[in-house]
Write a structure and sequence with these properties.
two-stranded antiparallel sheet; eight-stranded mixed sheet; single chain; 266 residues; 27% strand
Length: 266
């Protein structure tokens, strides 16, 4: 199939894993799933979907789990919450005055409260017919998804993972004896690259997932590696997860400053 149409839109679905507990962000996740934690005045899952939309992907599958009803209620009411309308309480009618919501198609699937990442992926198998993108519901990036997809198609393997360098979390000090010779407040991690999500996958990857208790990052990934079917797309730009309250606050401050690197849309 063609992966890009004449308008430059990518013709594939994006799967977002949105069912975990988010225990390291318990200050925010007691009453809502992690993807609903806000950056600015919008949940992080909205930011992720806007990144995809910028590259022409508007068809989403959201894998719900922990407090999935919050995600379902958010998107069920999204159209009205983002539109101006007149309501006649007597006749129980609503007239849309101004439509402001995005043109997204969203399939929200209950993939189980205790299901692991691979199991969540396998539970949406019936919704997938061709190459698709999968990412986590808690990380934002300025990754060029069009280039990522083209790269995946060029090598002909089953799976591509976006490799990123994790952001520095601690100040680094260089010493000469007891004398401080250099100090970096938030250095970039130089230990290597890590899984940044934004996978491009062929449907055959479902065959490597046993069931609900299979973590995608364990046996399926190892099986792909053994068969030489997993390649890396190296992204050297911005990427940041929202693992802790510190991460959430950093993303929030970046957004409010008007200089959020992942805001690639207009």
């Amino acid at each position: 199939m063609e992966i890009v149409n004449i308008r430059g839109e990518i013709l594939m679905k994006a799967v977002i894993l949105a069912g975990g507990y988010g225990t390291r962000l318990s200050e925010e996740t007691m009453n809502q799933p992690k993807p609903m934690v806000t950056i600015g005045d919008r949940p992080i899952i909205w930011h992720i979907m806007k990144i995809f939309e910028h590259h022409g992907i508007t068809d989403f599958i959201v894998c719900c789990g922990y407090k999935g009803y919050v995600l379902k209620e958010y998107f069920a009411n999204y159209y009205l919450h983002n539109s101006d309308f007149s309501i006649d309480l007597k006749d129980a009618t609503i007239d849309i005055v101004s439509r402001k919501s995005e043109s997204w198609k969203i399939t929200l699937v209950d993939t189980g409260k205790e299901t692991q990442t691979g199991g969540r992926l396998k539970r949406i198998k019936s919704h997938i017919n061709d190459t698709f993108i999968m990412t986590y519901g808690d990380g934002v990036s300025d990754v060029n998804i069009k280039d990522l997809v083209k790269y995946h198609k060029s090598h002909g393997k089953y799976a591509t993972v976006t490799s990123v360098q994790p952001p520095g979390r601690f100040g680094a000090i260089q010493l000469n004896g007891d004398l401080v010779t250099a100090f970096a407040e938030k250095p970039q991690n130089t230990a290597g690259y890590i899984n940044g999500g934004f996978f491009v996958l062929e449907p055959c990857v479902f065959d490597f997932i046993d069931g609900d208790q299979t973590a995608w990052e364990d046996s399926p990934i190892n099986a792909l590696i053994e068969r030489e079917q997993l390649v890396s797309y190296t992204h050297r730009g911005f990427w940041r997860p929202m693992d802790t309250l510190r991460d959430k606050n950093a993303l929030d401050e970046s957004w409010k400053s008007g200089a959020a690197p992942w805001k690639i849309w207009q």
